[in-house]
């Protein structure tokens, strides 16, 4: 599932491609991806310009000149592509937004969605999200406080809880834990202050690097896009079960934790 670095990449790419552009047509082949009937959706977005694109956690908000917002969440397997009908990947498209210079295709939306909301509705939907992990206002002290409010929780469960921090998911939670040398299953209450300090630093380092390298999305956003997905080969533990730990050489282990896949090194990551 795309996380903060991937969605931030989309924000930049969408801003470049769409800011100031008018939606000239819209097509919906999966009404379930919407929150309103398809004909109503089309009527309300057609002819509207996109003012700007904002990201909050794993959500994207496309601000329309009508004052309404398109709230997109890709969930598991969703992605976006911008281009002409000829360039379009050979995949089923759930929603297409047409612009004068190309189409924005929403692909792989199963649990993912594109909801048309008023400003107030959009705000309400995002109200419970925790702070952005790279927000300068999220100091080490505030970070530690937010985690410690979940004392009995396992580290990974707290890191992926969108009310604790907005934007971290399965992959980066494991990467952050590995970098900080803490087990994803460690109880928050058992962590020493030094471990919390390392977690804060590694969260910043991992997410900044992933953002700089274009995240891990496998699909380019448009023809000629070579910057998306640069982090895919940089993961140190995620999806590397059985491969040697890059720090100590032990085999990376994959387990299930609270019905989530979790990857870690059993030798150099600790539970305190
Ligand atoms: Zn190791």
TrEMBL record:
This is Formamidopyrimidine-DNA glycosylase. InterPro entries: FPG_cat, FPG_N, H2TH_FPG, Ribosomal_uS13-like_H2TH, Znf_DNA_glyclase/AP_lyase, Znf_FPG/IleRS. Residues 236-270 form the FPG-type domain. It catalyses: Hydrolysis of DNA containing ring-opened 7-methylguanine residues, releasing 2,6-diamino-4-hydroxy-5-(N-methyl)formamidopyrimidine; 2'-deoxyribonucleotide-(2'-deoxyribose 5'-phosphate)-2'-deoxyribonucleotide-DNA = a 3'-end 2'-deoxyribonucleotide-(2,3-dehydro-2,3-deoxyribose 5'-phosphate)-DNA + a 5'-end 5'-phospho-2'-deoxyribonucleoside-DNA + H(+). Pfam families: Fapy_DNA_glyco, H2TH, zf-FPG_IleRS. It comes from the Bacteria. The keyword Zinc applies. Its cofactor is Zn(2+). Keywords: DNA damage, DNA repair, DNA-binding, Glycosidase, Hydrolase, Lyase, Metal-binding, Multifunctional enzyme, Zinc, Zinc-finger. Belongs to the FPG family. The keyword Acyltransferase does not apply. GO terms for biological process: base-excision repair. Its EC number is 3.2.2.23, 4.2.99.18. One of its GO terms (molecular function) is class I DNA-(apurinic or apyrimidinic site) endonuclease activity. Residues 2-166 form the Formamidopyrimidine-DNA glycosylase catalytic domain.
